[in-house]
Design goal:
Elements lengths: L2 E5 L3 E3 L4 E8 L8 E6 L6 E6 L6 E3 L7 E6 L4 E6 L8 E8 L8 H5 L4 E4 L3 E6 L1
Parallel strand pairs: 2-11
Antiparallel strand pairs: 1-3, 3-8, 4-5, 4-9, 5-6, 7-8, 9-10, 9-11
Length: about 130
């Protein structure tokens, strides 16, 4: 069993920056892809960014490409999301997730699928004011 705890959410002005962290416990997550998703009020949970176990392969939603950076520190069992140039439409609860397996071929199509993730955190709120 893996427990995930996100932190770093806050109220920030448009154009500002914020860094999120997700600490995993219960099992090492170094062999698994991980991702960030977000869910705004009244909307479905959507893919934000993902990173493969190697820490090299990363994928981003078009809406955050060039503004957000996902990274991981397996020595600390921690996933990060650096968010720059924030916009009001980035307002949402942000969730981290751990893939249920280590696929031989890791594609963005797989990274986007919610059901591929076995463990989820409780979420951290990000609010961007205009």
């Amino acid at each position: 069993q893996v427990q995930l705890v996100e932190s770093g959410g806050a109220l920030v002005q448009a154009g500002g920056s914020l860094g999120l962290s997700c600490v995993a416990s219960g099992r090492t997550i170094s062999s698994y892809p991980m991702a960030w998703f977000r869910q705004a009020d009244g909307n479905e949970r959507e893919f934000v960014a993902a990173i493969n176990w190697d820490g090299v392969t990363t994928y981003y939603a078009d809406s955050v490409q060039g503004r957000f950076t996902i990274s991981r520190d397996d020595a600390k069992n921690t996933l990060y999301l650096q968010m720059n140039s924030l916009k009001p439409e980035d307002t949402a609860t942000y969730y981290c997730a751990v893939d249920r397996s280590n696929p031989w071929q890791y594609t963005i199509e797989r990274a986007r699928r919610l059901y591929e993730y076995a463990y989820w955190g409780q979420g951290t709120q990000v609010t961007v004011s205009s």
